[in-house]
Structures are given as structure tokens and as C-alpha cells.
Write a structure and sequence with these properties.
heterodimer, A: about 400 residues, alpha/beta, six-stranded mixed β-sheet, about 60% helix, B: about 150 residues, Jelly Rolls, five-stranded antiparallel β-sheet, about 30% strand, globular
């Protein structure tokens, strides 16, 4: 978040017609410039950026340092290619433009795109570099395009003369199918000396890397903070609700632990549905898998409403059969008292009767081993109970009548 | 010790202007990063003989010191080694954000040629009439500046 005024020196010489960068050197350069402007203005709203061209009829300042991104992008339109690049003059004019910046508190920085051959010799460049250093101006050099003998050395010498405290950088970009902007994103020119990474640059890098966002919920908090906040809040609400349901599940789990009942079979189907819908949301949660299953069971039950009430009671009854006889009697009575959907029960019984289905459900339950003999006994006994329940339900119906 | 000597030279009504320096605006162009202006100016640092202000690329330094209120500047003490200390110092008042190119644009309020005595701590008395209402002072000088005390 360094407060900075930047002047970008564009090379619009004849050498920029070449197509070794996709689509042409000039277009690649323009894209990179747009990206840099965006990154600078995003990292600090008070940053200003200006643009000048080094070739053509002469060095021409297109826009003086401004924080208005639209103005900068507009001036990139309709630029003509021609002439020869004048590196020394370009840098000097950039320095002058920076000197007359409005906010004197901004750090001064020049970014040079050196695409054509450099006709000045090392000595001249070193003197320019020294002058920049003396006036506390940082310099970033993008060496691309024409690869001439001695060009990298000259530019390195210039950088050496300017550099103080690693605030200046040079990047050599050879021709490649990758866009110039993509290569630049990962360089210190964008990341700003490693401190205060621009969220823009990081997001752009992530997008370039193929849509894998490093941020939660796939939304960049910098790009859309309200959406990110809303997502985060809803996630926490969901989590809180799940925790409340988990407490309920813990109580039920103690009873459900011993075997599959009608509710669990229902839960399994519900679980699958829930898992599909919440998988995206839960993807980055650190819930354990078995916790998840428990919670989802609880969710299913809480969502299922009245019908789960029946199944709960049935479950209680099945457990009661293996456990407390008195409790079983009491539960039976309570079931008799409430009018239930007989058809529902029979459906559930049928499901339960299907041994294979139930055993597959059991297998998916955490902490239940279907091959465990006690579980097998339970299954057998449950089948009997389901038949008993049918008879019992018929009995109370008759009694009610 | 040298500090008290210089104090004895000044008249009673004068104070060390260190308290009136606006530290947020203090700048120095062409200083080397390891030997910065703070070494020369700040209380505690400037008494330390080991710390000094050094120039970087060439022998010119541009020091900009703003004050928190309008002051009258009487004298400056600059200490440095004989060989590497400053020789010619130009003073500009109330000019914000000068660069090395501006230095020749307007005449300085005062110019001082430093003798070895000055470098040992003798205060440089300035043309008092030119420094009557000073908001900021810029000095440009040669390398090896050691200590600055203003009165």
C-alpha cells in the first residue's frame, strides 16, 4: 500500500509491429500497461499513474499522473506505431513529470517498456540511473521484444545505477505463447517489493492460473467485499444451526447407535441429497466426516418434521425391545395416543424388511459394522418388531374405534 | 563536551531548534540508506560520534527541514571530518520540495564556506535578517556531513 506516483514509458516504435508476442508486441504491451494501471490504483486509491510514449515524432506525455483509471485507459486508444524509441529522453521526461506531481508525498517510480534496441551506450545510461537515484526515483524495466546483443547488459547497468534498497527491478520477457501481462503479474513490478501484495494482482494471478481462487467461497474479498461478507455470515449461521442440530443428533445418536431403523434409512437418502447440495459450501470446512454424517442425519430429522416423529418413536421402540421393557411399554402407549399415518409406517416397514437395503444403510453409518453379530441379531429382531408394530397399530385403531 | 562548548558561544535568549523540527516532513535527497539524516539530526543520535550522514551517488546532499512554527534562525553547527566534511553549504528558506535541479534556479538566502574550525563545531552565523520568518530550511552541501545543530 505504498503511496506512489508512477510514470509508464511506452515503446511505440516500428519494432512493435512484430507478432512474436500474441497478438502483436504493441497490443501485448498495451494489455500489460492496462493491468499495471489497475493494480497500482487498486493497491492504494491515492496512487497516480501517468503515461508517455517514447517513439513517434518525439517523447510525448499522453496523460500526467492521475488516479482516474478511465482517463489512462482512454489515452491508450488510437496510439500510432512508428519511429524509433528514445530511451534517455523518455526517462528524463518521465522524471520531470514526476517532479511536478501534485501530491509531493508520493514516492516516484518510472516503469519502462524497452521493446526495441537501445542505441545509447552504457555510460549514458548509468549517468541517467545515478541522477534518478539522487532524486529518489525508482525504476522498473521490462525488457521484451527485440533481443539485441548487449541490450540486457545495458539495461542491467542502468538498473544497477538506479537501484537503492531493491526498490527497482528488471524483468526479461522472451517471446512465448504466454501473454506479456501474465508473465508480469508474478514479478515484483506488480507485487511491489513483496510487501503489501495487491489484492488485484493476487486475484488476477489466481484467475490466470485457471480459476483456482485462493479465497473462501470463490469470491475475492477485494473485488466484492459485500458478497464475501454475506457468504461468510450465511456460512456461520449454517454452522450454528448445524451445531444446534448436532446436539439433538448426539442425543438421538446414543439411541440410534445400535442399529438401523426406519429413520436412519430415511436419513441416508436425505443425507445423500444434503451432501450433494452442501458439498460446495462445506468443501472448505474442517468438519470431520463422521461429524458431518451425524449432523446431516440431524438435519434430515429436523427437516423431516412430523414423519420423522413417527420414525423416532419407532426407533425408540426398537431399542426399547432390546433394552428396557417398561420403557417399551410407555413408548408404545405414546405411539398409540398420537394418530399416525398407517401407510407411512407400512412403507417404512417394507423398506426395513428389505434386508439388503438395510444392511447397506448400516454399512454407511459411522461406528456400525454390519458384520457384527449383535447388529445382525438386531436386524432380525427388528424385522419381527416391524410386524409386531403393524399388529399393535391395528390394535389401537380398533380400540379407538 | 563539544555540545556544551557551542552552547556557551550562543547568547542566552537562543535555544536549540531541535524541538521545533517537524519530523514528519524532514527529507534528505541523495543520502545513503545506512547513513541517513536521522543520524545527524536526532537527539541521542547526533551526540554519537560513530553515526553520521553520508551522501550516496555523488557529493551533493539536499536536506529539507520544516519547522512546526515560524522561527528565526541565527546559526547552524555542522560537524564533520576534515577530509570528507562539507565545504560549501547553501541555505534556502521556505522553499518546499526542491530538487537538485532547482538549486540553481534562485539564489540561496545564504552561502557558507566551511573552515576546519566550523567542522569541529563552531557555529556558522547566518545573515540574521534573511532568516527572520523561517518555516523550512533547505541546505545543500558536500558529503560527509556529521552533525547538525541549529540555533
Amino acid at each position: 500500500m505504498v503511496l506512489e506516483a508512477t510514470m509508464i514509458c511506452i515503446d511505440n516504435s516500428e519494432w512493435m509491429r512484430n507478432g512474436d508476442y500474441n497478438p502483436s508486441r504493441f497490443q501485448a504491451q498495451a494489455d500489460a500497461v492496462n493491468l499495471i494501471c489497475g493494480a497500482k490504483t487498486q493497491s492504494n486509491p491515492e496512487n497516480t499513474v501517468g503515461v508517455l510514449t517514447m517513439a513517434g515524432k518525439g517523447v510525448r506525455v499522453l496523460v500526467t499522473p492521475t488516479s482516474d483509471l478511465g482517463k489512462i485507459l482512454a489515452c491508450m486508444h488510437g496510439l500510432e506505431i512508428g519511429g524509433e524509441m528514445n530511451l534517455a529522453a523518455g526517462i528524463q521526461v518521465a522524471q520531470l513529470a514526476l517532479k511536478h506531481r501534485q501530491n509531493k508525498k508520493q514516492q516516484q517510480r518510472i516503469i519502462v517498456f524497452a521493446g526495441s534496441p537501445v542505441k545509447y551506450d552504457k555510460k549514458v545510461l548509468e549517468m541517467i540511473g545515478k541522477k534518478l537515484k539522487k532524486n529518489n526515483v525508482a525504476l522498473d524495466i521490462v525488457d521484451f521484444g527485440e533481443e539485441e546483443d548487449g541490450k540486457p547488459e545495458k539495461l542491467e547497468a542502468l538498473l544497477g545505477a538506479v537501484n537503492s534498497n531493491d526498490s527497482s527491478h528488471i524483468v526479461h520477457v522472451p517471446p512465448s505463447p504466454n501473454a506479456l501481462s501474465d508473465v508480469l503479474i508474478s514479478t515484483p513490478i506488480f507485487t511491489g517489493d513483496g510487501e503489501g501484495r495487491s489484492g488485484f494482482a493476487a486475484a488476477a494471478a489466481a484467475a490466470a492460473a485457471g480459476g483456482v481462487s485462493g479465497f473462501d467461497f470463490g469470491v475475492d474479498p477485494n473485488l466484492d467485499p459485500e458478497l464475501a461478507l454475506a457468504l461468510r455470515v450465511s456460512m456461520e449461521e449454517e454452522r450454528a444451526r448445524q451445531e444446534a442440530a448436532a446436539k439433538k443428533a448426539a442425543e438421538e445418536a446414543a439411541k440410534q447407535e445400535k442399529g438401523g431403523e426406519q429413520s436412519s434409512s430415511q436419513d441416508a437418502t436425505m443425507t445423500e441429497n444434503i451432501a450433494a447440495s452442501t458439498s460446495e459450501v462445506d468443501k472448505r470446512n474442517d468438519l470431520m466426516d463422521d461429524e458431518n454424517a451425524l449432523l446431516q442425519q440431524a438435519l434430515a430429522m429436523s427437516m423431516d418434521g412430523p414423519s420423522s416423529g413417527i420414525t423416532e418413536r419407532d426407533a425408540e421402540m426398537s431399542d426399547a425391545a432390546t433394552g428396557d421393557q417398561d420403557l417399551a411399554l410407555a413408548l408404545q402407549l405414546s405411539v398409540q395416543d398420537s394418530t399416525k399415518d398407517a401407510a407411512n409406517q407400512t412403507d417404512m416397514s417394507k423398506l426395513l424388511a428389505d434386508q439388503t437395503f438395510v444392511s447397506s444403510i448400516l454399512a454407511s453409518l459411522p461406528g456400525v459394522d454390519p458384520n457384527d453379530p449383535s447388529v445382525k441379531d438386531l436386524l432380525a429382531s427388528m424385522q419381527n418388531q416391524s410386524e409386531q408394530k403393524k399388529e399393535e397399530d391395528k390394535a389401537p385403531d380398533q380400540e379407538d374405534k | 563536551m563539544s555540545a556544551t562548548e557551542s552552547i556557551s558561544v550562543i547568547q542566552r535568549s537562543q535555544v536549540d531548534l531541535l524541538d521545533f523540527v517537524d519530523w514528519t516532513g524532514v527529507e534528505c535527497l541523495n543520502q545513503s540508506s545506512s547513513h541517513s539524516l536521522a543520524n545527524a539530526l536526532k537527539q541521542g543520535y547526533r551526540e554519537d560520534d560513530g553515526l553520521n550522514l553520508e551522501s550516496d551517488a555523488d557529493e551533493q546532499l539536499l536536506i529539507y527541514i520544516p519547522f512546526t512554527q515560524v522561527i528565526k534562525l541565527y546559526a547552524i553547527v555542522i560537524k564533520g571530518p576534515e577530509e570528507e566534511g562539507p565545504k560549501t553549504v547553501k541555505f534556502f528558506t521556505n522553499k518546499e520540495h526542491m530538487g537538485f535541479s532547482n538549486v540553481n534556479d534562485f539564489p540561496p538566502s545564504d552561502t557558507a564556506i566551511l573552515s576546519p574550525d566550523h567542522l569541529k563545531g563552531k557555529p556558522i552565523v547566518l545573515k540574521y535578517v534573511k532568516f527572520q520568518s523561517v518555516r523550512s530550511v533547505e541546505t545543500t552541501d558536500m558529503k560527509g556531513l556529521k552533525k547538525i545543530e541549529e540555533h
